[in-house]
Structure to design on (377 residues):
């Protein structure tokens, strides 16, 4: 063997590697797809100062002063009046379900207090489960609304008395202290389950192929459904252990409040974990090697974490990013766990999200069964 460096041999090795790279389309796609996805998501989808937040209006007064207040709210850019309700109970249901971030209540005696100069006031209730969402909207409201009311009355700001200015009473619901752990720690349950469940089950079939034991599995008198369940159900036990550890740490280490029903939460966790293990198993039907399976898993993790509302406010993303975020199970699970743990939501409030998780289970199971092949080629 000639030990002298040869450009011919080096060229042959390079050609071989490029051919192998071309054949491994998943790896090549990751090299191009991941940086492009990061650029688009961080450049366009991520926004730490959300605007046009859904708001419910409890308008007990229909005078021109109240209309001026509504106009001032919309002028700030933070509030989008999606619901006009007639009672506080209806508004409470909307906030508990996560349909709105703010509830604005204009009292029935608002116009009379304005005309008499008796400290007019309005009530703003904010869903503070994510403190970063409500902070910007609340901080700008007081000045804008007060100036709008003075303009409506024709009083210059320099001549206004303290009793003429609007008083905005703010109630931060569910997390009045604005503790970020109350929002992050419950979300970590979903993120950790997603990382472990999808990653472990994504190599379920590819590991059999690489070890050469796939022939034995295919020779068994078992249906694709039985093989799939046999592969994914053991990981439900692993998920149960993780849930117990994380919930225990949330209570003991971070003192996260738990005001909802444990049974309701466990049902949601079971559906979420089942969707994750079926998704990982589906990845294993597409991948040829364990490395490819892990690459598919990573490609799924990145947009899921960024667009689910875990790291950045979901309402702050543009509409196209919010629609994209809806296709990830983590998005719906985060809504459920935060609603149950922090808001004490009942089943009716989270029924839609539970139905979505159930739909994910059926879709992933159908794809995995259709992709399962009884041969090695």
């Amino acid at each position: 063997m000639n030990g002298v460096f040869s450009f011919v041999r080096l060229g042959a090795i390079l050609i071989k590697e490029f051919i192998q790279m071309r054949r491994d389309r998943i790896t090549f796609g990751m090299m191009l797809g991941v940086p492009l996805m990061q650029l688009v998501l961080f450049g366009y989808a991520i926004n730490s100062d959300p605007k046009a937040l859904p708001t419910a209006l409890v308008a007990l007064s229909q005078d021109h002063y109240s209309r001026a207040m509504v106009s001032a709210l919309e002028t700030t850019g933070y509030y989008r009046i999606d619901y006009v309700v007639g009672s506080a109970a209806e508004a409470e249901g909307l906030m508990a379900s996560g349909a709105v971030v703010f509830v604005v209540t204009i009292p029935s005696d608002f116009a009379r207090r304005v005309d008499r100069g008796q400290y007019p006031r309005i009530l703003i209730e904010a869903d503070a489960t994510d403190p970063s969402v409500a902070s910007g909207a609340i901080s700008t409201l007081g000045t804008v609304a007060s100036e709008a009311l003075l303009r409506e009355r024709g009083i210059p700001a320099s001549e206004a008395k303290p009793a003429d200015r609007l008083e905005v009473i703010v109630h931060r619901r569910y997390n009045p202290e604005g503790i970020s752990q109350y929002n992050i720690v419950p979300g970590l349950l979903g993120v950790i389950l997603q990382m472990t469940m999808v990653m472990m089950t994504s190599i379920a079939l590819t590991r059999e192929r690489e070890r050469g034991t796939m022939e034995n599995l295919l020779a068994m008198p078992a249906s694709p459904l039985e093989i799939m369940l046999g592969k994914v159900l053991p990981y439900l036990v692993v998920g149960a252990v993780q849930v117990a550890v994380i919930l225990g740490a949330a209570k003991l280490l971070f003192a996260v409040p738990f005001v909802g029903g444990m049974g309701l939460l466990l049902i949601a966790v079971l559906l979420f974990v089942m969707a994750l293990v079926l998704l990982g198993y589906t990845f294993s039907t597409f991948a040829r090697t364990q490395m490819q399976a892990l690459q598919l898993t990573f490609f799924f993790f990145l947009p899921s974490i960024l667009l689910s509302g875990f790291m950045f406010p979901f309402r702050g993303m543009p509409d196209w990013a919010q629609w994209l975020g809806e296709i990830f199970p983590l998005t719906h699970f985060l809504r459920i766990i935060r609603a149950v743990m922090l808001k004490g939501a009942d089943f009716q409030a989270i029924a839609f999200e539970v139905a979505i998780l159930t739909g994910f289970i059926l879709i992933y199971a159908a794809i995995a069964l259709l992709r399962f092949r009884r041969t090695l080629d």
